[in-house]
Amino acid sequence: MQYCSACGQPVTQTIPDGDNRPRAVCTSCATVHYQNPKIVAGCVPEYQGQILLCRRAIEPRSGFWTVPAGFMEMGESLAQAALRETWEEALARVEIGPLFAAVDVIHAGQVHVFFTGTLPRPEFGAGAETIETRLFRPEDIPWSELAFPSIRIALEQYLENRRTGNLQVHLATAPRSIRG
């Protein structure tokens, strides 16, 4: 950030009084501009034991598989964001279940949250950001072709929760590499 969004004047990096880290502070109106992580919300849609995945049509990681997920918009809840993203990316209407994983993606300044999702009917397609969608049995998930570490973490946790009946929210930090 170089200019204040409140008045248009230059900002400088300084530690404001009462704070403990550098922030962008306006040199004219003294507005402190906080830069905080963005929230990505998604779900793991399941239909009769199979998981719906989307092959990305956009960068980053075009051509790789993901669960339907994306950036939360102002004015919506986490669950609403997951529902919207599932419709936009997979043209699928799901019943959102419980939140089961939250992944800190520190290097990207993001937090990814994942809900369970039930696909009542096998009706889905490819939205504008998706090349294709497909249902996978757990043993057929293309693990080496997943787009992001957070997706691997979410799918592994989802399958573990399904196996054990665990309902606790799993908290994790994603490595920088999908191989992590």
Topology, element by element:
Elements: E1 11-14, E2 23-26, E3 32-33, E4 38-47, E5 50-56, E6 65-66, E7 69-71, H1 78-90, E8 95-105, E9 110-118, E10 130-136, H2 149-164, E11 170-173
Parallel strand pairs: 4-9, 8-11
Antiparallel strand pairs: 1-2, 2-3, 4-5, 4-7, 5-6, 5-10, 8-9
Q: Can you describe what's shown?
A:
With 180 residues, the chain is α+β, with helices and mostly antiparallel strands. The protein has two domains: 1-35, Ubiquitin Ligase Nedd4, Chain: W, CATH 2.20.70.10; 38-173, Nucleoside Triphosphate Pyrophosphohydrolase, CATH 3.90.79.10. The protein has helices spanning 78-90, 149-164; strands spanning 11-14, 23-26, 32-33, 38-47, 50-56, 65-66, 69-71, 95-105, 110-118, 130-136, 170-173. Strands 4, 5, 6, 7, 8, 9, 10 and 11 form an eight-stranded mixed beta sheet that branches. The chain is elongated and about 60 Å long. The chain starts with 10 loop residues before the first strand and ends in a 7-residue tail after the last strand. 29% of the residues are buried.
